[in-house]
Amino acid sequence: MPDPVLLFATVILLLPMGYCLLAAPAFLLVRLDIPPVTQLLRGLFNAYFVLLAIAGVIGTVAFAVEGRLVAAVGVGVIAAFAVLARRWFLRRMDADLDARDAGDPDAVRRLRRLHWGGMLCNAVELVTIVSSIPYIVVAPA
């Protein structure tokens, strides 16, 4: 029988990942040299990392309370990664946005690469969590 607390914590962790999975690819259809578009993209990734950090803390606490310390550490690593990645990602994006506004022709290409990197990072995290559901949600025997 699945542990409902751990199932709930896993679903909470999957919510920001699903949000990013559904919202980020839409920006592949637009040009990133349009300032409002890039501001929306920046806001999307900012919200994603903040929500992932919050969900990661909730998940870490839930797994720790249920005595699943290995899973708690794993989810804690995801939360810590979200905090650190947000800082790095947004600094890099802001630098590329400033360079684009200053007329750097390669800035849009770097923004697109950053966008792809953010989507890839989310996909790896999502696959990791989904593939580990059978191991973390079922109560140990």
Topology of helices and strands:
Blueprint: H1 4-23, H2 35-65, H3 69-101, H4 107-136
Helix pairs in contact: 1-2, 1-4, 2-3, 3-4
How would you characterize the overall build of this protein?
The chain has about 140 residues and is mainly α. It has one domain. It is about 80% helix and about 0% strand. It has four helices and no strands. It has helices at about 5-25, 35-65, 70-100, 105-135. Helix 1 runs antiparallel to helix 4 and helix 2 packs antiparallel against helix 3 (about 70-100). The longest helix is centred in the middle third of the chain and has 33 residues, at about 70-100. The protein starts with a helix and ends in a 5-residue tail after the last helix. The mean pLDDT is about 90.
* Helix content bin: over 70%
Report the principal-axis shape: elongated
Q: How many individual domains?
A: 1
What about the largest sheet? none
